[in-house]
């Protein structure tokens, strides 16, 4: 997706609480990722999905209209609730240029970050720090996965 003009590139991060059945959640997450890859390719959107069993977090990046349209659809999805956009801004480059939708899996660090991002008590500077850490962790994990796949 790197051949797409980066002018007007938007990045959005949201977190939400999962409504998936714990016993069948990996199959459901697989469906979500498969659907997202196909849809995102059409919309020229890239990004990464995280799932902890309790929470989702997703980075979306691409043309503003595509990202906003996609987010409107995601907000209505019944597989999660309490959808909270924690960052939405214009960016100079994509964080996940090679991934229509990467799935980074789960770890305890991610769950702590998502709980804090969903908390109404988290102050704005702290929320920004948490978002930055989540993004950096995603880039590291996805970069390592890409190197293993080569």
Describe the fold and architecture.
The chain is α+β, with helices and mostly antiparallel strands and 150 residues long. The chain has one domain (9-149): Alpha-Beta Plaits, CATH 3.30.70. It has helices spanning 25-43, 64-75, 108-118, 124-149, and strands at residues 9-18, 46-51, 55-63, 80-90, 102-103. It has a five-stranded mixed sheet, with helices on both faces. The chain is globular. The mean pLDDT is 79.
Amount of beta strand? 25-35%
Chain-averaged pLDDT: 79
Q: Write down the secondary-structure element order.
A: EHEEHEEHH
**How many domains make up the coordinates?**
1
Structural class: alpha+beta
CATH fold description: Alpha-Beta Plaits
Structure summary, number of beta strands:
5
CATH architecture: 2-Layer Sandwich
Question: Which blocks of ≥5 consecutive residues have pLDDT under 50?
Answer: none
The CATH class designation is Alpha Beta
- For the biggest β-sheet, the strand order reads 4-1-3-2-5
Helix content: 40-55%
End-to-end distance, in Å?
18 Å
What characteristic shape results from the CA principal axes? globular
State Rg.
14 Å
- Tally of contiguous helical segments: 4
How would you characterize the largest beta sheet?
5 strands, mixed
Provide keyphrases for this structure.
150 residues, alpha+beta, Alpha-Beta Plaits, 4 helices
Task: Chart the SSEs and their pairings.
Blueprint: E1 9-18, H1 25-43, E2 46-51, E3 55-63, H2 64-75, E4 80-90, E5 102-103, H3 108-118, H4 124-149
Parallel strand pairs: 2-5
Antiparallel strand pairs: 1-3, 1-4, 2-3
Helix pairs in contact: 3-4
């Amino acid at each position: 997706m790197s051949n797409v003009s980066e002018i007007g590139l938007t990045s959005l991060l949201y977190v939400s609480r999962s409504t998936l059945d714990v016993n069948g959640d990996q199959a459901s997450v697989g469906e979500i990722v498969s659907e997202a890859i196909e849809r995102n390719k059409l919309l020229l959107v890239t990004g990464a999905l995280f799932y902890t069993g309790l929470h989702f977090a997703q980075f979306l990046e691409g043309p503003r209209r595509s990202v906003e349209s996609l987010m409107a659809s995601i907000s209505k999805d019944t597989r999660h609730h309490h959808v909270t956009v924690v960052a939405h801004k214009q960016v100079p480059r994509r964080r996940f240029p090679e991934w229509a939708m990467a799935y980074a899996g789960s770890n305890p660090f991610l769950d702590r970050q998502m709980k804090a991002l969903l908390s109404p008590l988290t102050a704005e500077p702290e929320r920004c720090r948490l978002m930055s850490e989540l993004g950096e962790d995603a880039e590291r994990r996805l970069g390592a996965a890409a190197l293993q796949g080569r």
